[in-house]
Specification:
The structure is a single chain. By secondary structure, the protein is of the alpha+beta class. It contains three helices and nine strands; from the N terminus they run βαββββαββαββ. Strands 1, 2, 3, 4, 5, 6, 7, 8 and 9 form a nine-stranded antiparallel sheet that branches.
Length: 152
């Protein structure tokens, strides 16, 4: 029989988890419609902030959601067959004006990967890259470990 052991991650474990990953799913919502996309991100452990470079076209659904100052959740997870872990960062995305960045801020965006999940038609549309920061109101993480129980 297989049982599972669940545990809440400590703040240190959450920081380490977000720091060693670089992709997740960003979910946005306006009044009644959800929108979720896979994204690449950078994480600054000392400030506990997530940095994003989001690519979109002028008429994209992503751009429409970003223009509404949506509530946001970033979900990052991993699984190895025996265990599962996930972290959820909840808050509001803040668009960042590149001209306002300090040298330290530029480093944070430099640590974000070029968006890995881009799929474009043969004609590459006019793309805009915008910088965002998520300063989470809430960061939480859980681990689940599956264990085999041997009956005697």
């Amino acid at each position: 029989m297989t049982t599972k052991r669940e545990a809440e991650m400590s703040a240190t474990a959450v920081d380490g988890f977000l720091g060693r990953h670089e992709t997740g799913v960003l979910a946005l919502a306006d009044a009644s419609v959800p929108y979720a996309i896979p994204i690449s991100y950078g994480y600054h452990e000392a400030d506990r902030e997530v940095y994003l470079r989001l690519v979109s076209t002028v008429d994209s659904e992503k751009r429409a959601f970003l223009g509404t100052d949506p509530a946001a959740r970033l979900v990052v997870s991993e699984e190895d067959g025996e265990s599962y872990a996930s972290v959820v960062a909840t808050g509001t995305l803040e668009q960042v004006d590149p001209s306002s960045l300090s040298p330290e801020g530029i480093v944070q965006y430099g640590e974000t990967r070029r968006p890995l999940f881009e799929i474009w038609a043969d004609d590459v549309p006019d793309l805009d890259v915008e910088l965002y920061r998520l300063d989470p109101d809430r960061l939480s993480g859980r681990t689940v470990v599956l264990e085999d129980e041997t009956e005697f």
